[in-house]
Amino acid sequence: MALMRVTVRLFAILRERAGASWIQIELPERATVEDALNVLRQRRELADVLAHIPLRIAVNRQYVEPGDALHADDELALITPVSGGS
C-alpha cells in the first residue's frame, strides 16, 4: 500500500504539547481527515487534548469535515477554540 505525507499545523495547546508548530505524518493513500486524527490520537503528547477539546479542521486553508479526503502534501490545520474580548 502506498503512503502519502501530510503536514499537520498545530495551534495553541496542541503546539505547546507537541513542542512544534507542525509535524508530518504518513497515511495510506485515500486517507480521510478522520484517519489523520486517529493517527494523531495515538501520539501520547496529543491524545488527551484531542479527546477533550473541540477543533476546527482545515485542509489547505479551507475548512473541512472529518470524512473529507486528504492528498499527498496537503496541509492539515488543527485549530483550537480561542477566547478573549469582552
Q: Which assembly state applies to the chains in this document?
A: single chain
Helix content: 25-40%
| Biggest sheet features | 5 strands, mixed
Q: Which strand order do you get reading across the main beta sheet?
A: 2-1-5-3-4
Radius of gyration: 13 Å
How confident is the prediction overall: mean pLDDT?
A: 93
Number of contiguous helices: 3
Indicate the overall shape. globular
Regions with pLDDT < 50 over 5+ consecutive residues? none
Number of strands: 5
Order of helices and strands: EHEHHEEE
Query: Which strand-content bin applies to the residues?
Result: 25-35%
Name the structural class: alpha+beta
Q: How far from one another are the termini?
A: 51 Å
What does this structure look like?
Helices cover 29% and strands 30% of the residues. By secondary structure, it is α+β, with helices and mostly antiparallel strands. The longest helix is centred in the middle third of the chain and has 9 residues, at 33-41. The chain is globular and about 40 Å long. The protein starts with a strand and ends in a 7-residue tail after the last strand. The mean pLDDT is 93.
